[in-house]
Amino acid sequence: MAIERTLSIIKPDAVAKNVIGEIYSRFEKAGLKIVAAKMKHLSKAEAEGFYAEHSARGFFGDLVAFMTSGPVIIQVLEGENAVATHRDLMGATDPKKAEAGTIRADFASSIDENAVHGSDSTTSAAREIAYFFSTIELAPRTR
Ligand code: RTP
Ligand code: MG
């Protein structure tokens, strides 16, 4: 298996629920390392650009309004098969369909307010990581 990086966001609902530490703990227990992280209150333009692939969808306005409703925590996770490992931890988009024990089953209240985001492929991950982090913020560690 390959070592990958993926982009993760703890969305405004989960930040407001005070479960940042609980979610970070799940990443770490699954072998995903937090290699960069920041708290940010997204502007409308930043949220629209991030979710540009969904701009023609009926839920786009609601999605942007939700993602700008409060601060988010954005992180780059690194580990074996990180994209899929992270998506498995998150669970299905709709928390009603998410497997028990997943982040969305435990913390999301609806398909619109679903606690976390995760890149859906290594290609998306590369775009999404570059969207939020500069080269210097992603510099290799010495320890
Ligand atoms: P995300 O990008 O946030 O990680 O979520 P995802 O891959 O599981 O789902 P995606 O299809 O990329 O949709 C992005 C976000 O849009 C909202 N959504 N609402 N009402 C709806 O039918 C609907 N479908 C999607 C969700 O909040 C989803 O996370
Ligand atoms: Mg998605």
From TrEMBL:
Its EC number is 2.7.4.6. ATP binds at residues 11, 59, 87, 93, 104, 114. Homotetramer. The keyword Metal-binding applies. PANTHER family: NUCLEOSIDE DIPHOSPHATE KINASE, NUCLEOSIDE DIPHOSPHATE KINASE DDB_G0292928-RELATED. It is an enzyme of class 2 (transferase). This is Nucleoside diphosphate kinase. The keyword Chaperone does not apply. GO terms for biological process: CTP biosynthetic process; GTP biosynthetic process; UTP biosynthetic process. Coiled coil: none annotated. One of its GO terms (molecular function) is ATP binding. It catalyses: a ribonucleoside 5'-diphosphate + ATP = a ribonucleoside 5'-triphosphate + ADP; a 2'-deoxyribonucleoside 5'-diphosphate + ATP = a 2'-deoxyribonucleoside 5'-triphosphate + ADP; dZDP + ATP = dZTP + ADP. It comes from Fluviicoccus keumensis. Pfam families: NDK (PF00334). Gene3D superfamilies: Nucleoside diphosphate kinase-like domain. It comes from the Bacteria. Belongs to the NDK family.
